[in-house]
Amino acid sequence: MFISPMLLHKSDHPFDDDFYITELKLDGIRILWTKFNDKVCIYTRHKNEVTAMYPELTNVDLPNGTVLDGEIVVSDVNGKPDFEACMERFKSKKVPYEVQYCVFDVIQYNGEKLSSMPLISRKKVLDEIVPSNHPNITVVQWTPGNGSAYFDLVKQNGLEGIVMKKADSAYEINKRSHSWLKVINYQFEDVYITGIRKDEFGLLLSFLDGKPAGSMEFMPPVERKKLYSIYQINYENDKFRFIEPIKCRVKYRNLTKQGKLRIPSLVEWL
Q: Is the dihedral of CA 132, 133, 139, 140 positive or negative?
């Protein structure tokens, strides 16, 4: 049985509030683990069943009528989440990366719906029910408040960000809630826009030294309108218009293994 998960809103800055808890934002794939009628089913948040991709998670000793929410993570040699490796493992179970299911919430347990319980109470249930001896499942740790200090540690260690959640929040199924806030540890870079995709919107980017920086797949309509009013075409092919470079500043999650910007978005024109 699929349950559509509770989603987060964004916050530009961390804050300190004892009515919130703070967790590490894990750079992986959101997964719902369910067991009904002695059958384990594993779903992405978009309702794609991916049970066959994660056979190592089908033997978790939990009763029927249980639904967990968490993140599938693959760690690199330094113990940091590796999103690219996680995606490789997601696409093929033959890829020899060990996954960890990092559970941060329980929606239902042993047939009892827990979504209306306060988050802190659900966290206590998680600590009691998730097997401590299973090599591929763990409970996400949290701390009361301390969002600012936690985010500083995240920045120092090059991690993705934090999640701040109201300690008394219910689990709001199929809703994007202001009770849960994510703060992303964005990086910033000055780049050139060097090309415009002809069909579906997309922009080619280069670093200031001319090396390819990847592509930007989204731009707010008002900024897109400004771009269309100023660009000048140098040449084009079937897929792209290559333009006189336009300098801008972007924010991004991290550099890929190929040295490209991951999920860049416009901050300002330069």
A: positive
Which one-letter amino acid corresponds to residue 44? T
> What residues act catalytically?
25
* CB contact at 8 A, 127 and 139: yes
- Is 11 in contact with 183 (CB distance < 8 Å)? yes
Average pLDDT over every residue of 8-21: 96
| Buried residues in 24-52 as b, exposed as e (16+ CB within 10 A) | bbbbbbebbbbbeeeebbbbbeeeeebee
pLDDT in tens, 214-238: 999 999 999 999 999 999 999 999 9
Position 138, amino acid: T
Q: Which residues contact 112 (CB under 8 A, 6 or more apart)?
A: 65
- Please report which confidence band the pLDDT of residue 95 belongs to, taking 50, 70 and 90 as the band edges: confident
Q: Is the dihedral of CA 5, 9, 14, 16 positive or negative?
A: negative
Phi, psi of 80 (to 5 degrees): -90, 145
Phi and psi at 229, nearest 5°, equal: -85, -15
Specify whether the CB–CB gap between 63 and 35 falls below 8 A: yes
CA atoms of 127 and 269, how far apart (whole Å) = 48
Contact 219, 201 (CB under 8 A): yes
Mean pLDDT taken over the chain: 96
Closest CA to 246 of 218, 220, 224: 224
Q: CB of 33 within 8 A of CB of 67?
A: yes
Residue ranges and CATH numbers for the domains of the chain are: 7-184 (3.30.470.30), 187-269 (2.40.50.140)
Q: What is the pLDDT of residues 41-83, one digit of tens each?
A: 999 999 999 999 999 999 999 999 999 999 999 999 889 999 9
For residue 31, list its beta bridge partners. 44, 70
